[in-house]
Amino acid sequence: MKTRGRIILPILALILSLRGAVPQEPKDKDAIEIPIVLKTGDCLRYEIARTTTGEKGPGTLKSVVTIQVARADESGWLISWEHGDWQAEGPGQELNPDDLKAVNLMMKVRLLLSLDRHATNMRLANWEELRDQLQKGLDALTAGMPKDGMSKEMAYSPKTLLRSMYQNRELMTSYYTQEPQAFFAFSGKSLPLSKPLEAEVQLPNPFGGEPFPGRSRVVVTSVEKKGHRAVVASSMKLDPERMPKILEQITKDMGLNLGVPSPEGFSIKNVAVDFMAEYDFDLVSGWPNSLTLRKVSKIEGMSQEETTTMKRLPEAKPPVPKKT
């Protein structure tokens, strides 16, 4: 099962990148609005940190992401989402130069995001350009592998799985837009103060087949009217009874695609997939001051947890002219 887990955990990581629509009900008189005030040329910077806990213990990577509105018209927006250099953070987290180079080849990316007028549909406009860049990263990562083919052990590695994912626009879009999808999830939405929003969800299956069933919950935890701020918490839990069979089929199909069929009698029984988020919104601009995303996946004794934080950086002030 441990070897098979090398397929399952990356699949779970991809599943966790999916986002369901924010549930909507008739507008309450006490509701708050998260406005969409995006103008061409708007540009903000956020410090982003990703902490992953798995078999090798916790590890944190940090970068700065620059978000710029490249175009705004009646059809929606084109948004540039660009990561700077990534660095390992914390004691014992130093990466050797080759590993750091590979990380930046794969993660120092510029996404061009097409967002519709209602901020409900996001499309990765430059996916082919991104695919070519990521292919270079994977080539660098696998340069030391034997040239006469991969062993079964290698076939289960996340690198091999990612290589196959990068050939699929839907999979790559799901994986690389997880932070942007979460960032804009509440843009233009109305959220009641009197009660939480709860709904059954059916997430599209990027691997094909049965959608992923679950339940979502959104609640406004606090509002500071004078400061024009609101804190919103959301969560989503996939159905623990139906997900094992769905994940089992995906794993079998992926194994066949990699040339290593699942063993006779292979099954998955215990699966837990949870997504939690907290936002601190500026209610004038609609931009988050900060957000924290936490994703947890557990299966048959294995677990993987990822926490991503984004904190808005102060806008650069123009230089003060020197006195003459």
Rounded mean pLDDT score: 81
The major sheet is characterized as:
12 strands, antiparallel
List the total number of helices: 8
Approximate shape: globular
Compute the separation of the termini in Å: 74 Å
Q: How would you characterize this protein structure?
A:
By secondary structure, the protein is an alpha+beta fold. The chain has one domain (2-312): Lipovitellin-phosvitin complex, beta-sheet shell regions (Roll). The protein has helices spanning 2-16, 97-107, 127-141, 152-155, 158-165, 169-176, 178-183, 243-257; strands at residues 32-33, 43-54, 57-73, 76-83, 87-89, 110-116, 122-124, 190-191, 197-203, 212-224, 229-238, 271-282, 288-299, 302-312. Helix 2 runs antiparallel to helix 3.
Task: Write a brief structural summary.
The chain is of the alpha+beta class and about 325 residues long. Helix content is about 25%, strand content about 35%.
Give the SSE map.
Blueprint: H1 2-16, E1 32-33, E2 43-54, E3 57-73, E4 76-83, E5 87-89, H2 97-107, E6 110-116, E7 122-124, H3 127-141, H4 152-155, H5 158-165, H6 169-176, H7 178-183, E8 190-191, E9 197-203, E10 212-224, E11 229-238, H8 243-257, E12 271-282, E13 288-299, E14 302-312
Antiparallel strand pairs: 1-8, 2-3, 2-14, 3-4, 3-5, 4-6, 6-7, 9-10, 10-11, 11-12, 12-13, 13-14
Helix pairs in contact: 1-8, 2-3
